[in-house]
Amino acid sequence: MMADGFLIEEGILVSYTGREETVRVPEGVHTIGEGAFKACVSLRRVELPSGLTDICANAFKGCRKLEEIEIPDCVSQIGSYAFHRCHALKQIVLPRSVEELGDCTFLYCDSLTEIHMPGVKKLGKQVFVNDVRLEKLEISKELRENCICDVFTGCGRIHEFLFEDGECCVIPNAVEAIAGEMILPSPVRSIAVDILRMMELEDRTLVRFLTNLKHVEIPEGIERLGKSCFFDKRGIISVKLPKSLKEIGNRAFRNCINLEKVSFESGEIRICDDAFKNCTSLKTIQTCDGKEYVFSGLSGLKGTDIPEMVRGIYRQVMGNFRISGTILLKYLGSESRVVVPEGITRIAEEAFAGNEAIDRVVLPDSVQRIGAEAFRDCLLLQTIQLPEGLKEIGSGAFENCVKLIRVHLPAGIISIQERTFRHCVTLREVCFPEEFYDIKESAFYGCTSLRQISFPDSLGGIGRMAFYQCSGLKEIRLPSHTEYVGS
């Protein structure tokens, strides 16, 4: 039967193709089929029929605007991923007839504040993982604790527990429940342990953060971030720190090269000297009074009456670079990945030369020139993205970068200078812009992995020994406009 966007077969709702914000599923439907409402992005409210018994896997997955749904008393089965990424859901009340939840049922329902599941005895994997606003749980005392493993990970705000017999248990936070001396019902303690599963704790110190989330909220109760606890977590974009925090240890966020925002709930925090070193994507600090301070690359800090804590973090972010005006004179760090600050227009001669730690460099759009031998002998450098506004690459700039794999030259580069890629023995691919004109002496000397190369029609000449000892090249086609080829 097909009506009002519903495809129903023998009591099973197979699919819904409408675009209404409020949907009433017809009476007589006993099963919401697999993926029936999947990715219905307009859906805000669903009314389910009284005789419904089953909600299958992926049924409402990706309904990111879904705010309200009432589960009828007859429902006994809810499948895996049924409400995955329903970002607007705030509350779920399950009937006692639901005794089991499949894997990832409410994964990333990050507006969910309370869940009532008085009959549930078994939980699949990651049912509530990263539901960061979840505060209140109603659970059964028969809930199997051996299945509480990576179920509530990251739900750091849970503090109130109700049981089906009316008993209530309130904890200040998961950290206090574990590190303190509270006497707790066994399921509550198991859930508190699971909440903190992504962290290694010693009392109230975060020793190590074990995952690589984009947005991290450190739970209340943590008093110290230990040495290197977030070191090199390149996936993190934002961090929210709790009011209880008193100290950020050495290297705590060092080399978090994609970290853009840090929010503080306390103004009384000791920050060690290199806690934020090489966090060169960091743009915003929000202090406990709600004020935001913006880092503007070389332009410094925007705002007035800037707290010393914010100034100190900015100094750390810029601490690996010796800069004069808009010229990066020298990179002083030893990190594997480097993001050059916005506003730099020139990389000076030998600025990175001989650095044997770097494997990736990200240059800002502001860079126009790379000086001679700027990256010479960077033996681990594999990736560098050249900005579109780049106009000049100096001689020997990447000489002996033996791990460099590919190079895409932007439109502003019309010439490759002497020895630019000499002895880049792993270089396999070079892309030239349309207006490119000439290749100087020894530019690709000894690039033994170069298999093929395509020259633009604008190529005017190739200097002597430009491709000497490029033993992998099998064929070369010279454009009709090419006027000279050196010895």
Q: If you had to describe this structure to a student in words, what would you say it looks like?
A:
The chain is 5% helix and 24% strand. The chain is mostly beta strands and 487 residues long. The strands form 10 sheets. The protein has a 6-stranded mixed β-sheet, with no helix packed on it. Strands 19-21-23-25-26-27 form a 6-stranded mixed β-sheet. The longest helix has 10 residues, at 186-195.
Sheet of most strands: 6 strands, mixed
The portion of residues assigned to helices is under 10%
Poorly predicted regions? none
Q: Which strands sit side by side, in order, in the main sheet?
A: 1-2-3-5-7-9
Given the helix and strand composition, which structural class is it? mainly beta
Beta-strand level of the residues, as a percent range? 15-25%
What is the alpha-carbon Rg in Å? 29 Å
Task: Return the average pLDDT rounded to an integer.
Answer: 92
Give the oligomeric state of the chains in this entry, treating copies of one chain as homo and distinct chains as hetero. single chain
Number of strands: 41
Number of helices: 3
Shape: globular
C-alpha end-to-end distance? 79 Å
